[in-house]
Design a protein that fits this description.
Blueprint lengths: L1 H10 L4 H35 L4 E6 L12 H8 L14 E9 L12 E6 L1 H5 L5 E5 L8 E5 H6 L8 E4 L2 E10 L9 E4 H8 L6 E5 L6 H9 L6 E5 H7 L2 H36 L1 H9 L4 H28 L5 E6 L4 E6 L4 H28 L2 H6 L2
Parallel strand pairs: 3-8, 5-7
Antiparallel strand pairs: 1-9, 1-10, 2-3, 2-9, 4-7, 5-8, 6-7, 11-12
Helix pairs in contact: 1-11, 2-8, 2-9, 2-11, 2-12, 9-12, 11-12
């Protein structure tokens, strides 16, 4: 049986043109399949990594995003006093009250406007988000029209780079620093002093309240207590869960569209594999008769031709995964439908995606190779030998 397997592998590329075309077709399908999954995974990773496992975010009840959320300042004081909020040694609550608005700077690549979130933050906002690090310039000075930009915003939008000026809220704002946040969604935002931005946009309210949970606090108990407080109109979510939900609509669309395209392309690849294997059977009819005469049964012949088809499919699958992995160096910028804001993220490869892609290639190989292999197995010895 081992010799029969080597026979199949040696003959996989005996017809170089058809073999290469088959592998190329499967490579293309697997590449597209991987690209779709990597795009969806990259968006999810970017959004989930935006949140912290130790933080909780509060938005107005039934608000889907911070953009449409309104929390009165009086409610912020109630949440600050809750025992579930972690505190520093001096009793200061590890809690940040923030506002968020959208502005429309021009993209450097196209010159077209796009929505960019501007977040009003305080020093506590940085303390509860240790993944945010200044990489260029400095922090803004209080009481001035200065802001800092996320690294992706600085690269992609005019006026948002270090030393540049961007106009919004009826004022010109100077970008004095660039920050990174481990590739998370914060890098697609512009940050400034919450008091200055509140005054510029005339928003005497907050969009969200983010705080660190006190050690030993049961989240479900705290959630029930605050959400049922008649003085509050908020929904409470773990920060990671909140940001994960912000990508649901877009990732669902990408997955459905990508799956449909992959299935359509895979039909072409399956037909190509089937044509290649039928040609192999037709050209090696006498060899099949000889193998049967030497004692190899129908099952062995069926397995040999299926192995040949699978080898072609796996070759294309591996090539497709390798090519798709290069997409990790590509950054995509698009509008997140859940937040209506521009979000920059990268394709992300993972072990499960690579495994799914190779399984997809195997399925195409089996589907395209089974009928030709079955035809080879059904050939009668005498009929096959007459083909000589």
């Amino acid at each position: 049986m081992t010799k029969l397997f080597y026979y199949s592998i040696r003959n996989a590329f005996a017809r170089k043109l058809t073999g290469i075309l088959t592998v190329g077709g499967i490579t293309l399908v697997v590449f597209i399949f991987c690209a779709v999954l990597m795009l969806s995974h990259g968006l999810q990773v970017t959004m989930v990594d935006t949140g912290s496992a130790d933080n909780v975010i509060a938005v107005r009840k039934s608000a889907t995003t911070e953009i449409v959320s309104i929390i009165p300042r009086s409610q912020a004081d109630i949440i600050k006093a809750d025992p579930g909020v972690a505190r520093e040694a001096d009793g200061t609550p590890l809690l940040a009250t923030e506002i968020m608005v959208l502005i429309n700077p021009l993209k450097r690549s196209t010159g077209e406007p796009a929505n960019v979130p501007v977040r009003g933050v305080s020093a506590m906002s940085l303390k509860i988000r240790p993944n945010v690090k200044m990489v260029q310039g400095r922090m803004w000075h209080e009481g001035t029209s200065e802001v800092i930009s996320g690294a992706k915003v600085a690269r992609n939008f005019a006026g948002c780079g270090l030393g540049e000026t961007v106009r919004f809220g009826m004022r010109d704002w100077t970008v004095v620093g660039i920050f990174e946040a481990n590739g998370s969604g914060f890098e697609s935002e512009v940050w400034g002093d919450v008091d200055q931005l509140s005054a510029a946009f005339q928003r005497p309210i907050f969009s969200s309240i983010t705080f660190r949970v006190a050690p030993g606090t049961d989240f479900n108990t705290m959630q029930a207590r605050l959400e049922n407080d008649p003085r509050l109109t908020i929904d409470l979510r773990p920060e990671k869960e909140y940001y994960r939900l912000q990508s649901q609509s877009f990732t669902r669309f990408v997955n459905i569209l990508g799956l449909a395209i992959s299935i359509i392309f895979s039909l072409g690849a399956i037909v190509g594999a089937m044509i290649t294997m039928y040609a192999a059977v037709a050209n090696r009819t006498a060899e099949i008769g000889t193998l049967r005469a030497l004692g190899f049964g129908r099952t062995a012949v069926l397995g040999a031709f299926l192995a040949e088809s699978l080898f072609l499919a796996l070759s294309g699958g591996v090539a497709g995964v390798i090519l798709a992995s290069l997409l990790q160096f590509v950054e995509v910028s698009t509008t997140n439908w859940d937040t209506f804001a521009e979000l920059a993220f990268s394709f992300k490869m993972s072990v499960p995606i690579a495994i799914f892609a190779l399984l997809f290639a195997v399925i195409m190989g089996i589907t395209g190779g089974f009928l030709p292999a079955a035809r080879a197995a059904r050939l009668r010895i005498i009929t096959a030998l007459k083909a000589k």
